[in-house]
């Protein structure tokens, strides 16, 4: 337990043999009693502050640098003995975890510098607009690409669109498409359990960013190799991006956003890097993280009240349409990722529909209103307006399990496949 001021004062008095009064403290005897008392109280207060600063600094050091496992207990200082059952990590695990922490710390410090430049007006308007456009492109690469296309097979795409989505997803620096899909499928199969890489039942901070700063839970490591990734390994675009991910991420997320504003409209190189590269990256990163945290905690559950994911409009705005999370976890194979067709709150659906017009996106799968209404009547929280399509009678098909990750999941009920509406079908 951290010492409070009373504890610290007691310890200091015992160590220095100082009584509660100030009559015979360390000040010289020539000082008056009132002056001695004042000096003694000041000395005690300074030592209390130093002790508390030292304690919390060491604790922060432990939390940030030494507490790398999923063990919730944290040592009070680097010199305190570890718990008897503390998880012993390999040198490789320790190195990779500390590297991620240093990376997250560095990009956030640089992003703060970029934010300062924006607030103080030291950046050109073109640079800010470019950063917003570049960030939106990366978000669509994550939501319409890694998420709806590859994780859930909610639609199919020809190779030019797959390449475009893979490059856009790389801009976000959220791991390769292959790793992103693997973790996201596991998230759907074991939502909000220890096997979920960002289990929201462990709190907001953990589900938002903490999961990336510590070693995964043993339950995750025991399940991750069970995810079927054969479809990803058969996609040459996914494997190409996987092999070249590091240089592509450096080029697309940091080098180009730094050089283009400098080259095209004369922005300062450092300003361009801090705003268009670092600040843009951190903002888009946290917007995606909100899906794992805020959209699993706050909002309505009109389709399934028995699961944590919610309908969160603010998260949808921040992520180009991926905040309608209660619907998504109920029907993960719907390419719209939502029931509504408001493109202002679902920009990724608009992009998919636009590419379907030129034939690059096809086999767009969506849930018929009848099936949505039946499921909402049966398991929803009552906040969805009844459209009159279907009812909750016993003749309705049973609700699909909540642990389905997408269209290619073998656990997807056959009734859902038969009832699904598919637009722009391939020949």
From TrEMBL:
GO MF term (any one) = stearoyl-CoA 9-desaturase activity
Name its cellular compartments.
Answer: Membrane
The terms describing its cellular component in GO are: endoplasmic reticulum membrane
What residue spans carry the region label Disordered?
Answer: 1-25, 378-413
How does this protein sit in the membrane? Answer: Multi-pass membrane protein
Q: Which CDD domains match?
A: Delta9-FADS-like
What UniProt keywords apply to this chain's record, in alphabetical order?
Answer: Fatty acid biosynthesis, Fatty acid metabolism, Iron, Lipid biosynthesis, Lipid metabolism, Membrane, Oxidoreductase, Transmembrane, Transmembrane helix
What this protein is called in its record is (11Z)-hexadec-11-enoyl-CoA conjugase-like
Annotated gene: LOC112685784
């Amino acid at each position: 337990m951290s010492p409070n001021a009373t504890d610290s004062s007691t310890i200091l008095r015992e160590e220095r043999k100082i009584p509660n009064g100030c009559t015979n403290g360390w000040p010289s005897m020539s000082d008056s009693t009132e002056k001695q008392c004042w000096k003694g109280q000041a000395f005690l207060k300074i030592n209390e502050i130093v002790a508390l600063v030292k304690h919390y600094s060491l604790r922060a050091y432990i939390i940030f640098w030494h507490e790398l496992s999923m063990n919730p207990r944290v040592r009070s200082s680097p010199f305190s003995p570890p718990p008897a059952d503390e998880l012993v990590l390999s040198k490789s695990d320790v190195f990779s975890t500390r590297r991620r922490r240093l990376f997250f710390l560095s990009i956030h410090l640089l992003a703060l510098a970029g934010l300062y430049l924006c607030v103080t007006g030291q950046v050109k308007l073109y640079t800010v607009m470019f950063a917003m456009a570049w960030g939106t492109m990366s978000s669509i690469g994550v939501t319409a690409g890694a998420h709806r296309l590859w994780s859930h097979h909610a639609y199919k795409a020809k190779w030019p669109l797959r390449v475009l989505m893979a490059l856009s997803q790389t801009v976000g620096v959220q791991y390769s498409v292959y790793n992103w899909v693997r973790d996201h499928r596991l998230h759907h199969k074991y939502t909000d359990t220890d096997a979920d890489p960002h289990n929201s039942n462990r709190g907001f901070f953990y589900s938002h960013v903490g999961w990336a700063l510590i070693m995964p839970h043993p339950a995750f490591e025991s399940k991750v190799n069970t995810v079927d990734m054969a479809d990803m390994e058969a996609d040459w675009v996914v494997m190409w991006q996987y092999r070249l991910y590091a240089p592509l991420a450096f080029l697309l997320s940091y080098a180009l956003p730094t050089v283009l504003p400098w080259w095209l409209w004369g922005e300062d190189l450092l300003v361009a890097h801090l705003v268009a590269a670092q600040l843009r990256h951190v903002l888009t990163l946290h917007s995606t993280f909100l899906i794992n945290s805020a959209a699993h905690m706050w909002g309505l559950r009109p389709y399934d009240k028995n699961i944590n994911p919610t309908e969160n409009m603010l998260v949808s705005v921040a992520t180009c349409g991926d905040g309608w999370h209660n619907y998504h976890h109920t029907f993960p194979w719907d390419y719209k990722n939502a029931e509504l067709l408001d493109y202002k709150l679902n920009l990724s659906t608009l992009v998919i529909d636009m590419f379907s017009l030129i034939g690059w996106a096809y086999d767009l799968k969506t849930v018929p209103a009848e099936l949505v209404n039946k499921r909402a009547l049966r398991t929803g929280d009552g906040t969805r307006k009844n459209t009159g399509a279907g009812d909750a009678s016993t003749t309705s098909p049973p609700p699909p399990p909540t642990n389905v990750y997408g269209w290619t999941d073998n656990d997807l009920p056959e009734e859902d496949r038969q009832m699904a509406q598919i637009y722009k079908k391939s020949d």
